[in-house]
Amino acid sequence: MMGLGSAIGAGLFLGSGVGIAAAGPAVIVSYVLAGIMIIFVMRMLGEMGAALPASGSFSHYARIGIGEWAGFVMGWLYWFMLIMVLGVEITGASSIVSSWIPGVPQWVVALVFVTFFAVVNLAKVANFGEFEFWFAALKVAVIIGFLVIGVLLVFGLLPGTEPVGLTHLLGDGDGFAPNGTAGIAAGLLAVAFAFGGIEIVTIAAAESRDPERSIATAVRTVVWRISLFYLGSIAIMVLVLPWTVAGSSEDSPFVSVLDIAGIPYVSGFMELVVVVALLSAFNANVYGTSRMAFALSRGGDGPAALGRLSRTGVPRNAVLLSVFFGFVSVLLNWLLPETLLEVLLNAVGSALLAIWIFIVVAQLRLRPRFEREGVLTVRMWAFPYLSWVTLALLGMFIVLMLFDDTARVQLLSTLVLFLVIAAIGWMWQRRTRPVPNRPGPRGH
Questions:
Q1: How far apart are CA 80 and CA 343, in angstroms?
Q2: How far is CA 118 from CA 91, 128, 137, 199, 325, in A?
Q3: 267 in helix, strand or coil?
Q4: I need a surface site. Which of 78, 90, 223, 435 has the fewest CB within 10 A?
Q5: SS3 of 6, please?
Q6: What predicted TM-score, i.e. pTM, was given to this entire model?
Q7: Residue 274: which residues within 8 A CB-CB, separation 6 or more?
Q8: What is the pLDDT of residue 135?
Q9: Are 139 and 348 in contact (CB under 8 A)?
């Protein structure tokens, strides 16, 4: 269920309108290109994860496939990215919930949520899995319900509706790609990061009873998950709604489609679903950051205290560290919404690209070793050609970001963050790694 649910986040429910506004109906092309890239990345991650399950999988594969420095940089970059996202998610969820309860301050709701999920993650791994199961079940049910209603609308099978035809898909006179290839490129940037978080499933699978089988199952289903949930939902939106409406409405395009179907109370229900998606992501990210900190500690790239386990097998100190910085991130959201927070979020904005590049390079380096050892149960298709194609697609993303004002700031901020973490890693490893013994004088 985590494999299913990790593909469905607030980015799909809330962010799809941004992509439609940028590309028009051609946002489908943007989603196809971004989807192909993340499918390839997940396949490569699944190949390494099934061959060598590890709780802090990304940093471990970067360390053994690229070098010690890469393990440090990738691990702490991913940790920092998710810590900042924690604050955004809990702020979003608590602002919605506080609007439902008059007189209750937003910080009180945030405090309740953070404390609750801290307890969930500190108790035992099964608790985390149980909550993610039900969160994922609700999100999957909502998407499936939306797709069924959308198909009925497309064919005019609901009372008072007519078949929609291809008028909206062709841009209502503006054409399929009203903003041209530049619009598709802008849509690509808008939708690519909506897939962020899907990689956490390989961290979670490493703690399951049968990690090789769990990772293999999750990765093999990623193709139809992305095709059904993302491409299916976007196709419904651009078929049923004029792209100018879907891209400019204050409501989520999901709400606009369901309003056409005449379903009562749909706006309130979708608000609830968005809260569930945000809380699900928060819960998963507390888990992901704590496991990454734990793995970095065990690999010698973090304080030893973060590598200790409780009697129930939970890295308690690593969870407490993540929760503490989750609180700090929430405070930054309220105290510095347009200054320091903006700088930090910009640094996070394109960190996923760096992490995906690390995954691809590590897979290119480790595949021959895994073949020699005979441990491959999941294989990247057409190796090494599709691995290099994925690397080229990621390079194309970087080039696109350089020509977009907002994205360029994100890229440069991430580069600065990357260099800072690399410098800290160099100093840390000089301090903690033993210096090789030099040969003594002859005769000694």
A1: 13
A2: 16, 10, 22, 22, 12
A3: helix
A4: 435
A5: coil
A6: 0.86
A7: 10, 13, 14, 92, 96, 252
A8: 87
A9: no
233 in any annotated domain: yes
Please give the DSSP secondary-structure letter assigned to residue 226: I
- pLDDT for residue 360: 96
CATH number of the domain encompassing residue 370: 1.20.1740.10
The count of structural domains within the chain is: 1
User: Would 292 be classed as within a structural domain?
Assistant: yes
Output 242-246 pairs: Cβ under 8 A, ≥24 positions apart. 242/168, 242/172, 243/20, 243/21, 243/24, 243/25, 243/27, 243/168, 243/171, 243/172, 243/174, 243/178, 244/172, 246/16, 246/17, 246/20, 246/21
Q: What's the CA gap between 383 and 391, in Å, rounded?
A: 13
Mean pLDDT of 116-120: 87
pLDDT in tens, 235-280: 999 999 999 888 776 777 888 888 888 888 887 888 888 888 888 8
Buried b (16+ CB within 10 A) or exposed e, 65-93: bbebbbbbbbbbbbbbbbbbbbbbbbbbb
pLDDT band at 26 (very low <50, low <70, confident <90, very high): very high
Mean pLDDT of the chain: 84
C-alpha–C-alpha distance, residues 88 and 78, integer Å:
16
Could you give the CA distance from residue 36 to residue 137 in angstroms, rounded to a whole number? 25
For residue 442, tell me if it sits in a domain: no
Helices (H), 6-56: 10-23, 27-51
262 and 160 Cβ atoms separated by less than 8 Å: yes
Is there a domain that residue 444 lies in? Answer: no
Q: Which residue has the higher pLDDT, 64 or 219?
A: 64
Q: What is the mean pLDDT of residues 387-402?
A: 91
pLDDT digits (tens, 9 = 90+) for 172-208: 888 899 988 888 888 887 787 777 777 777 777 777 7
Compute the distance between CA of residue 68 and CA of residue 198 in angstroms, rounded to an integer: 25
Record the tokens describing residue 132, joined without a space. 């993610």
